[in-house]
Design a protein that fits this description.
Length: about 500
């Protein structure tokens, strides 16, 4: 038989009922919100912290639909697994991780040879270093060139004041940063209507005895066009002889360095050009590695003065260092090596050829809209430039390129609209970057959505379009204010002086 049992009362005054729940959204933190600006006093369960960060990041755009960026959004599972396995490796510690250091050396050698670096004798061997991206690589190249110029001027008893760099005003903002941080005057060749890449003769006219470098861009971020490095070399050789100077060329191959060798191998732009002293390239763009890896390559040791190199005894191992960063994970360099090893020349050639074909297909389809009466193409085809499509409206109507970009964004596509470089800034354009995961199928879906967006805009009253544009500006201003970012506009950069908008990289 059963017995009647008593149930003693217990105090639960110190028990948080939220700690008894097994669901993230039943937790106390779900009720009051995650900390935003101040470190919380108490710790949080790992699954709760992970879930709230995950939910917050849902507000980001979808990387595969981000057609604004050159940065890689796809790598194979084997590469991702390999990178995760070595996430904790401190790349700088070659004493403890010599295999990782060897991988960097292998990558430098492969890329230098891809760029036709001289390897005939030990005295003329190229050398290079991994960086966080092309921005760091460019700053290092400018630093090396400035110090080399300064040392030569000192030895000759000449002034070391007022060094300058000659470049297209369409350069990426990292060039402005390098010049400003390192106190080098920026001398710009400005774009003209119909001409958005450097004119070699006009650019060299800006060169004088204080010029430390001339920059050539292998694939501008605005239109993807390649600048004429060989032509620039010819003009600069004449100027050097005329003035008795020794100015060299740096090639900003951030985007084109892993494209041109496979699509247009006969294009002479790299170390085959006599005056090219250094090249940067972004491994995380068409090098097909995830964000966080770039490369700086110099023709030979003579372009890297000893007084900017540091021998560091790090954990018992002497190392020569030339970098703006120190401790960092080895995963980006490992990811780059995986791609170089996995793909080889055949794999890269196949991918870059496909991307070029997809870009050509997209360009032609856009041009064919309304029997060719709607758009004008600004980028190149058939591999003459980067695999991207830049285009503009032929005629000014009731909506502009920014309205098209906003309408596409409502369908999930991130397509940048921006104004051209200074002196051509009245021109607006759109740009789609064709990356590895932008397949022909995805391209056709994008074209469908682009045509639907145009139909929608065509039937929308102009007063509504004007209201939407004004509302977008107000929302953008409010968003910037909420972000707590410092946004004081300067009056000395190209943005401050000419209203330059930088194409997304």
């Amino acid at each position: 038989m059963g017995f009647l049992s008593t149930v003693p009362a217990t105090s639960n005054s110190n028990v948080d009922i939220h700690n008894l729940t097994t669901t993230v959204y039943g937790s106390a933190i779900a009720g009051r919100g995650a900390p935003r600006f101040e470190l919380a006093e108490e710790e949080m369960e790992p699954r709760v912290a992970a879930r709230f960060i995950h939910d917050h990041l849902l507000l980001d755009g979808t990387p595969s639909l981000n057609l604004a960026s050159f940065v890689t959004t796809y790598m194979e599972e084997e590469a991702e697994k390999l990178m995760m396995e070595h996430l904790s490796v401190n790349f700088i510690d070659v004493e403890e991780y010599p295999a990782s250091a060897e991988i960097e050396t292998r990558c430098v050698n492969m890329i230098a040879r891809l760029f036709n670096a001289p390897v005939d004798t030990p005295e003329s061997e190229a050398l290079g270093v991994s960086t966080i991206g092309s921005s760091e690589a460019i700053i290092l190249a400018v630093l090396a060139a400035k110090r080399l110029w300064k040392n030569k001027r000192k030895a000759a008893g000449k002034s070391t004041e007022n060094p300058n760099i000659v470049m297209n005003a369409a350069v990426q903002v990292c060039w402005e940063k390098a010049a400003r941080y390192l106190e080098v005057e920026e001398r710009y060749w400005y774009c003209k209507p119909g001409q958005y890449v450097l004119d070699p003769k006009e650019a060299v006219e800006l060169v004088d005895e204080n010029t430390i470098l001339v920059c050539a861009i292998l694939g501008t971020t605005y239109t993807g066009q390649y600048e004429d490095v060989a032509g620039l070399n010819d003009e600069l050789e004449k100027k050097n002889k005329e003035l008795g100077i020794d100015v060299h060329i740096h090639v900003d191959a951030a985007s084109g360095g892993f494209v041109a060798p496979f699509v247009v191998p006969d294009l002479i732009w790299d170390f085959r050009v006599p005056l090219v002293c250094s090249i940067n390239v972004s491994g995380h763009k068409y090098g097909l590695a995830y964000a966080g890896v770039g490369w700086a390559i110099w023709r030979d040791k003579s372009f890297l003065p000893d007084d900017i190199l540091f021998t560091v005894n790090y954990l018992g191992s002497p190392q020569v260092s030339f970098t703006l960063n120190f401790s960092k994970s080895a995963v980006q360099v490992i990811g780059q090596y995986y791609q170089l090893l996995r793909l080889g020349k055949t794999g890269y050639r196949a991918i870059m050829t496909n991307l070029t074909a997809t870009a050509d297909f997209l360009a032609q389809e856009i041009l064919d809209i309304d029997q060719g009466e709607r758009f004008e193409l600004l980028s190149e085809i058939n591999g003459a430039g980067l695999p991207l499509v830049a285009w503009k409206l032929k005629n000014l109507g009731k909506y502009d390129e920014f309205a098209i970009a906003r309408t596409l964004r409502s369908r999930g596509w991130i397509v940048p609209a921006y104004t051209m470089a200074p002196h051509t800034e009245t021109m607006k354009l759109l740009r789609v970057v064709v990356r590895e995961d932008f397949s022909r199928d995805r391209c056709q879906i994008f074209l469908r959505d682009l045509k639907d967006a145009l139909k929608q805009l065509d039937v929308t009253p102009e007063v509504v379009l004007d209201h939407q544009a004004e509302q977008h500006l107000q929302q953008a201003a409010a968003k910037h204010k909420r972000s707590h970012k410092h946004r004081r506009h300067d009056n000395h950069s190209l943005q401050g002086t000419a209203g330059k908008t930088h194409a997304v990289c």
